[in-house]
Amino acid sequence: MILKSGLIPPSPLSVFGAATDSLLSLPDDPCVAHTSRVTLIVAGSYVVAIAIREHVPILEKLLYPFKLLVVGMHELCHALAGVLTCAKIESIELDPNEGGSTRMRGGIPAITLPAGYLGSSLIGAALITVGFDTSASKVAAIVLLVLWAITLYWARRSWVAYATILMMAALIVITWLVAHSVALRFFILFIGVMSCLYAIWDIIDDTLARKVNSSDASEYAHLIGCCGSRFWGAFWLLQACVFFVAGILVGIVVFRDSWEQQRERADRFLGGKSTTASLVLTILRHSLNTAGTILVDQRANAMSVFCPYWTPHYRHPLLPPGGDRRDPP
């Protein structure tokens, strides 16, 4: 489109390229380390790639598994909130069409409903923060493996969840071994950006751009009986944006080491490029086994220990009637 002045407006990619050149050409600033500048540029490229994916078929295909991953993390946050409010988690399901659902009995819906968007955006912000440092990214990778193992336990009947999480676990192993784990750092950063943007975009799409009656915001508005779904969607959107910005700012302030300093510390923490694949695979195996063992052991007595007043006849108000109502062992 030609403006009245005869000038052609710049494309988003050219604007991003100019901003990148300007950021790299800035003189040394004690407030922003060089490693943080590079991280900001990479994060910006992630944002652009995610934003234009629907218009670039190859990007849409490449990002498809990551979209399923963040959907799974969204559902996991619902489930974890349910556990904290004494709910019985029945299953997590992932849909190949990028949808998901969490079935639970009991709990406090006023907490479990917003936990999906807010929890996934909070996890995404934390991953963005640790994405500014290699050693912190290693710790985050181990935590993610444990969380994914818990997800697989609840989604054990979903082949989509197994395929997605096993692929991501393999990518963690591979990136851990590349370039003293610098590749892992940017991989964790990408998951964080993807998780935050997914929460922000889905809130806008489901509540502000169009009203979806089955969305979390619509069900929450119906449950609370105060304000509409657009109000709660806007409120959650504001919180998700705050988490996103806070994740970036905390990363800039906290992690200020140079590339050499980060590499030395990363090599001391479970190694970097010199680490053998067997070591990382051992960490992965033990993480999965530990999470699975904890869940299996706690399944029999979790309700009686943490929720002594729980009754098997209490049904989640958003769960359809019927289903198995076995008493807890």
From TrEMBL:
Chain segments annotated as transmembrane: 111-132, 139-155, 161-179, 186-204, 234-255
Record key words, sorted: Membrane, Transmembrane, Transmembrane helix
Organism, as annotated: Kockovaella imperatae
Descriptive protein name: Peptidase M50B-like-domain-containing protein
Domain of life: Eukaryota
